[in-house]
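thought: fold this chain, then report.
action: predict
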Amino acid sequence: TYLGRANYLSVLNLSNVIYQSSLIAIMAVAMTVVLISGNFDLSVASVAAFAAVLLIGNADAIGFWPAAALALAGAMGIGLINGVIVQYVGINAFIVTLGTMTAVRGLVLIYTDGRSLSASDPAVVATMKAVEGGSHDVFWLLLVAGILLLVLGASGLFKAYSAGGALRPVSIGTAAGGAAFLLVAWACGGELVLRNPVIYMGLFSGAVWFTLGYTMVGRRIYASGGNPEAARLSGINVTRYKLLAFVFC
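observation:
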């Protein structure tokens, strides 16, 4: 793609590519948690569409933030339904989420009557523009984050190497992420302006990474997905953590 297109790696184009990918990346990060727990979810895109129509369809009537809370609750409710059927009824996640995907698509079609939805209240539109449309220069933040991640990852790798143990994938990923941040900071030449959704993606991804790598909840999700029987024998409520992953996604 780069060959013959001198502007492909420009800061502006990179910012646009990241912006266009940010919402999909948020869904992908959430789905990663389900995969780590030993399941998968085919209904992610349909649930995202359902949450969107709940938000847009109710924002004029009840306000943006109550509608956003309603959309979040609706999406989590569908995740809970998926988790309950998979964990308590015992149906394979492929079958359950395939059915949920189709059913939720039908709900979206019924709710919208096949039409596009839009908000018309000026206050709601202004709030949406503020939430989605802002931009920030994150060069220095990216530089500092890259240094911190690289140091943290390298420290973990050095400790594992000194102790003669296996290198932890978390430390390798942390160091690689820090190096990638520094590479992007170097490539952008001192200025990198990103839109709000990209900031949300970074914060969300960082929170999920920290939770999975450095908290008890994350370790138990890994254990529940890696070897459910061993996790159950060690006292972990496997059903609870698998259900939590579906609700989160």
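thought: worth noting. DSSP finds eleven helices and two strands in the chain.
final: tokens above.
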